[in-house]
Design a protein that fits this description.
Blueprint: H1 2-17, E1 43-47, H2 57-63, H3 65-70, E2 75-78, H4 109-121, E3 125-130, E4 134-136, H5 140-144, E5 169-171, H6 177-194, E6 198-201, H7 209-223, E7 229-232, H8 238-241, E8 246-248, H9 250-261, H10 268-278, E9 285-287, H11 293-296, H12 301-304, H13 308-322, E10 325-328, H14 353-368, H15 370-374, E11 376-380, E12 385-392, E13 395-402, E14 408-411, E15 420-423, E16 428-431, E17 435-438, E18 443-446
Parallel strand pairs: 1-2, 1-10, 2-3, 3-6, 6-7, 7-8, 8-9
Antiparallel strand pairs: 4-5, 11-12, 12-13, 13-18, 14-17, 15-16
């Protein structure tokens, strides 16, 4: 009996020892990414785990990493994966009951480290969504440290964040230094102990800028020689003085919607772009998007921009005018319905392969042409067509996007008349004359 037990033990040890290396995750932080992209070069992919699988979704995301990387993105942003509060809860991933753990719905810490590792192996950084404004009502801090929360002045009870109807979460009190240090310690854990590459910070404008500076300074120190990326969901100029690298281009998004849905002139986008970047410090970037998890709960890009072709015209106008590219998981296959990120929504990843290839081509051009991200912009105003030139040294591109659901003939910019040009998305060569005929929602990226 003892010999049989010994043989079984040895056999089991041999089986474990022979498991493939990728099945065993390291105990310490994941090996760092060889090189994080410069902020101006970021092309981001937002992962909503709940469109990948109803359970073990972190592994499901990792299983699709080849497809994600093949889009040409270089940073993956993962929505919150922490345990979700039950008390007063509505299953929102932004209702967090433990900042240093992972919800069983999504997987385990090993599953998450595996995802970080495969992102790094594919040359992509990974940033994690962080919710510093509030916690779940059943977060241990509520009972252990009630003074870490905002209280109603009349009843002396903890309140939800106001003026919103976010009744499932409790508002944190940033006048409390102990709470600030605990929050920073939790953020530092994911950087130093797990090995992620930064954070996307939820409702950043509602958290004091001096806290963000304190936190970001600490996180960059904890990262050592590694570069980390900090994205603020906000538009306050204080985001950048606090140390964020990027924040949201909400004003540009609103202008884009007004062009498509309120018949505003196409050239209002130049004004919106200039207004956002005129006040931006050097080296900082606005994240431009046609959709994300919040927008997709209301309308998908094809609905918001009237058709699949309209959504692609909007994407080119958004991405190629001043960089800051974002693709939301499901966008690349044209998922037709709104996605409520409070629940699992199955996405057919095999749908619309041609649309996937179109996004792939556009991001490839975006990555290959630095003038798109850092060149000078020369606008050619028109009420229906967005036309602009981007130049960097001897390199120049002409981008023409019809933002209307009708055919339009637009004047060719004077420097391009009688020039030979190639349309980069199609590799079609054309001799430009004094005008360009545009099909509904058509676009050209000419070199």
């Amino acid at each position: 009996m003892k010999k049989s037990f010994l043989f079984l033990t040895v056999a089991l040890f041999a089986i474990v020892a022979c498991q493939p290396k990728h099945a065993q995750e390291p105990d310490g932080p994941v090996a760092p990414l060889q090189k994080m992209p410069a902020v101006k070069d970021v092309a981001m992919y937002q992962v909503n785990p709940r469109v990948f699988a109803p359970e073990n979704s972190l592994r499901a995301v990792a299983d699709r990493i080849d497809s994600i990387a093949s889009l040409g993105v270089n940073v993956v942003w993962v929505m919150p994966i922490y345990p979700i509060g039950v008390e007063k809860g509505k299953n929102s991933p932004y209702c967090i009951s433990d900042y240093k753990a992972i919800a069983a719905e999504f997987g385990t810490l090993d599953d998450f480290k595996h995802l970080v590792r495969v992102c790094h192996e594919h040359g992509m950084g990974l940033i994690l969504d962080w919710v510093a404004n509030h916690t779940a009502w059943d977060h241990p801090w509520v009972k252990e440290h009630p003074d870490w929360y905002t209280h109603d002045t009349e009843t002396d009870t903890i309140i939800h964040p106001r003026p919103w109807d976010w009744l499932d979460v409790a508002d944190l009190n940033y006048n409390n230094d102990s709470m600030r240090l605990a929050m920073i310690d939790a953020m530092k854990y994911w950087i130093a102990d797990v090995g992620i590459d930064g954070f996307r910070c939820d409702v950043a404008d509602c958290v004091p800028a001096d806290f963000w500076k304190q936190a970001i300074d600490t996180l960059r120190q904890a990262a050592g020689d590694r570069q980390i990326l900090m994205l603020a969901e906000g538009k306050s100029p204080e985001n950048f003085t606090a140390g964020f690298d990027m924040n949201y281009a909400w004003d540009f998004k609103d202008s884009l919607i007004s062009v498509f849905n309120q018949n505003q002139r196409a050239d209002v986008l130049f004004k919106a772009d200039k207004a956002e970047y005129d006040s931006l410090p050097d080296g900082k970037v606005k994240l431009r998007f046609t959709t994300n998890h919040d927008e997709s709960t209301k309308q998908t890009p094809p609905a918001l921009f009237h058709s699949q072709r309209g959504s692609m015209a909007a994407f080119v106008a958004t991405t190629f005018l001043h960089g800051g590219a974002l693709i939301y998981s499901s966008q690349e296959v044209g998922y037709p319905d709104p996605i409520n990120f409070f629940n699992y929504v199955p996405v057919d990843w095999k749908a619309n392969s041609q649309l996937y290839k179109e996004y792939q081509r556009l991001i490839s051009i975006y990555n290959a042409r630095p003038e798109i991200r850092e060149g000078d912009i020369k606008p050619y105003p028109h009420k229906d067509v967005l036309t602009f030139e981007r130049t960097a040294g001897a390199e120049r591109l002409l981008v023409i996007v019809n933002l209307r659901d009708s055919a339009i003939t637009v004047p060719t910019p004077q420097p391009w008349i009688n020039k030979e040009a190639v349309d980069l998305p199609t590799n079609f060569f054309a001799a430009l004359r004094d005008s360009v005929k545009m099909a509904p929602y058509a676009y050209f990226i000419l070199k």
